[in-house]
């Protein structure tokens, strides 16, 4: 479970782009290769992180007090449990990620917190993820927000991402919510697509840019909360921002 210093980790590259400190030389080199082609590529992770915070605050305000954050990445200053508890101090959060670095950091961060847990599991194996004893922290009879934020673009078409989403939602209670953000190929230049491909070609999980229609299909036809599937910075923002050329689309759907 030791991090591989020869291969870039999506979580550590994301950490570098967010201005964190938990990354290696190989991750910095991978991120800088993208930044060389698209200097504003740092903005996309930041806007995605802000989207996550706004969504969690909104759902906590609706009374949701359980969150399953899959593909959570490395800890930052505004983790889901911090945000949710700013609205509801009793909120419970289970994080899940398959990255060994995330496991190490999460164990240190969450130690002593009896309302958070971490599962070392892969979104591509929902049965194993959901069977982990840590999930007992979440009451299956109460609504849960299932967060798949900036993770499904690391799932190949061959792994059937839509089926994985449905498997994760199969046992959640009525009143739950599905949250997805995903990198899109809209307005992405061939040079940037090539840089992204090269950056993640040696990573454990390559990044897959998808068109809007395929991202919307991940919600399984469920109606989306307003404003629908939009650039993450346009989901109920406090301020309007100019579009980034490396775009993520995000949305929230109730789960009946």
TrEMBL record:
<dbReference type="InterPro" id="IPR006764">
    <property type="entry name" value="SAM_dep_MeTrfase_SAV2177_type"/>
</dbReference>
<dbReference type="GO" id="GO:0032259">
    <property type="term" value="P:methylation"/>
</dbReference>
<keyword id="KW-0489">Methyltransferase</keyword>
<dbReference type="Pfam" id="PF04672">
    <property type="entry name" value="Methyltransf_19"/>
</dbReference>
<dbReference type="InterPro" id="IPR029063">
    <property type="entry name" value="SAM-dependent_MTases_sf"/>
</dbReference>
<dbReference type="GO" id="GO:0008168">
    <property type="term" value="F:methyltransferase activity"/>
</dbReference>
<protein>
    <submittedName>
        <fullName>SAM-dependent methyltransferase</fullName>
    </submittedName>
</protein>
<keyword id="KW-0808">Transferase</keyword>
